[in-house]
UniProtKB/TrEMBL annotation:
Ranges for domain Lipid/polyisoprenoid-binding YceI-like: 41-223
Protein name: Protein YceI
Length: 224
């Protein structure tokens, strides 16, 4: 009976430790040369675009989620994106109020989490006010490639800079370029440790309780 109980507990712990993946995994490497501008410029419509983020405690528990605002441009030639730069102002980072229940978080609210994320413990917006993504390569997504984005047709690579660290990431995206408009959709997961986003010193138990995975969902609209 004792062995059965231990086995049942082990199975339960494994189940808790795994969250259902709703995003694509990125391929991360060192900083690459930024793609050169070619073609017409399209400007991101900040009001029509959204960048959603979701962070978790260990095992995918107690997700925290919200948005940031984004500006930037894409270059388009012969109906294809050739380059682009997206800038998220971390001062606009907002946690969804439904993501934080004060009854379960010692009275802390979503606004309290916003303040903490912007502090030197994490993004340190006083010193690093923005996160930047510069496209380095755009390729057709190979046939048969699975993606969490329905209709994904491109493989996007770019330098993602958070604070003072730049890492090149590659992920699938659905890109539609029509007359005078771009729709860009992607859902991918990064490892915050790749950018040194840690809470406290190395090995701090407070940081250990936070999952290293952060999900990002980009729904970007740009106009000529």
């Amino acid at each position: 009976m004792k062995k059965i109980s231990i086995l049942a507990l082990s199975v339960a712990l494994v189940a808790v430790s795994c969250k259902e993946s709703k995003t694509d995994n990125v391929t991360a490497t060192t900083e690459q040369a930024v793609a050169e501008h070619a073609g017409e410029i399209f400007t991101i419509n900040t009001d029509s675009s959204t960048v959603n983020w979701t962070a978790y405690h260990k095992g995918g528990l107690n997700p925290r989620f919200g948005t940031t605002k984004t500006t930037g441009t894409f270059s388009v030639e012969n109906g294809n994106i050739t380059s682009g730069s997206l800038i998220s102002d971390i001062n606009t980072l907002t946690t969804d109020p439904t993501a934080v229940d004060p009854k379960l978080s010692e009275g802390k609210t979503a606004a309290d989490l916003d303040t903490h994320l912007k502090s030197a413990d994490f993004f340190d917006v006083a010193k690093y006010p923005s996160v930047k993504f510069d496209i380095t390569k755009v390729e057709d997504l190979p046939a048969g490639t699975e993606s969490k984005v329905e209709g994904a047709n491109k493989k996007i690579s770019g330098n993602l800079t958070i604070k003072d660290k730049t890492v090149n990431v590659t992920f699938p995206a659905k890109v539609e370029v029509t007359d005078g408009k771009i729709n860009f959709v992607s859902k991918f997961t990064i490892n915050r440790q790749d950018w040194g986003l840690a809470y406290g010193a190395e090995g701090d138990p407070k940081d250990w309780m936070i999952s290293q995975e952060v999900d990002l969902e980009l729904n970007i609209v740009a106009d000529k």
